[in-house]
Amino acid sequence: MSVYATLCFLAAAAMLIAFVNSKLGKWQTTIAITAGSLLFSLLIVVAGKNGFTQLQDTAITQLAKLDFEHFLLNGLLGFLLFAGGLGIKLESLKDQKWEITALALGATLFSTFFIGFTLYFICQLIGIPFDLIYCLLFGSLISPTDPIAVLAIVKKLDAPQRISTQIEGESLFNDGFGLVIFVTLFSIAFSGQPISIESVSMMFLHEAIGGIVYGFALGLLFHYLISATNDHAMELLLTIGVPTAGYVFGQMIGVSGPLAMVVAGIMIGNWTRKNGFSKESKAQLDHFWELVDEFLNGILFLLIGLSMLEFSFHGEDWIIMLITIPLVLLARYLSVRLCYVGFNQFRSYNPYSVIILTWGGLRGGLALAMAMAIPAGVWVLPEKQIDVREIILVITYGVVLFSILVQGSSIVPLINKAKEWQNTHQR
């Protein structure tokens, strides 16, 4: 079966789960799709262990053809981040610019090293020789909150404005900084090449700052192109050029495509929406990109659930997974709490802000894609055929599933309490 045929069947499966959920379950759509695909994966595994090995082998082969890492990082990501940027209100972003900067930079850095050093210490205590550099590498890929998961689940719950802007803004902008940390630690762990402060600084300037500058230029170009036509269908078609050719060209010149998509999306969603689109396009822009967003999110979250079929599991993996889930939550809480110690010196906030930012700091497909980039064959326990890639993949998958299924489905009461407090104190 071709890759295109596989994608068609996956899209149909995602839509079927979403439809059934709308009639029966009433869960948030992406949570329902992830849970449904995970259940399907477990059924395939059980069938494989009971003699139906051909079914399991076929499913694994088709998933391998898709290449989840490249499919997300080089395909879906541009569309999903651009759609997320379109919905960000510039005035709200300006009001929270220092909070978002501190969360995206400071909280990510603190969480990376807290998770890395704590996990290393615990692994030594339980007798698993997991080196510090690999623990830090896991910390770097799991610390940034995932904009796709956050926007798909949290954004639609209508949280108080400041909380919503902080959690959305942080998730959209922390990718560039998190990626630099990950690439730096990845180079130390696997390339054997020396890393200097100068090289890390140049990498950050090229990737992150370059991505922001490129995104601004891209947004400006498409603003003028959209403003130059009164054909509302052409205006909407032009927006597709940003996450397609615009994203690919950004990768070709070595800047951060994700940051470029966010910046271009914010520009077109605010500046062009106000001054460039025709009346018809203004009315249809959000509906058009909401449909694109829902469709691609359905495929992505289905793949997250099905990814389990490609992993190997050992007892040691389960032990570390059970350790890392509360560890990641603790690191998230401490990093947000430390930021709020500074924030509270300058303005007052909703008392539920820290707990919502902690519980709503979701992880998703991006962390999984980075984990899949780790090479196989670097052994931790060679006698059991357990390598670094297996451990990091399994514990990342555990954190991602817990994040989407447990945190995503249980955050509603917290947001409702925050809204009640907000309404009470605004009277």
Describe this structure in words.
By secondary structure, this protein is mainly α. The chain has a domain at 81-300: Na+/H+ antiporter like fold (Up-down Bundle). It has helices at residues 3-25, 29-49, 53-66, 68-86, 90-95, 97-126, 132-142, 147-153, 161-191, 197-227, 232-240, 242-252, 257-275, 279-306, 315-343, 353-359, 365-372, 388-410, 412-425, and strands at 379-381, 386-387. It has a two-stranded antiparallel sheet. The longest helix has 31 residues, at 161-191. The radius of gyration is 21 Å and the shape is globular.
CATH topology grouping of the domain at 81-300: Na+/H+ antiporter like fold
Roughly how many Å apart are the termini?
61 Å
Mean pLDDT: 88
Rg, rounded, reads 21 Å
Percent in strands: under 5%
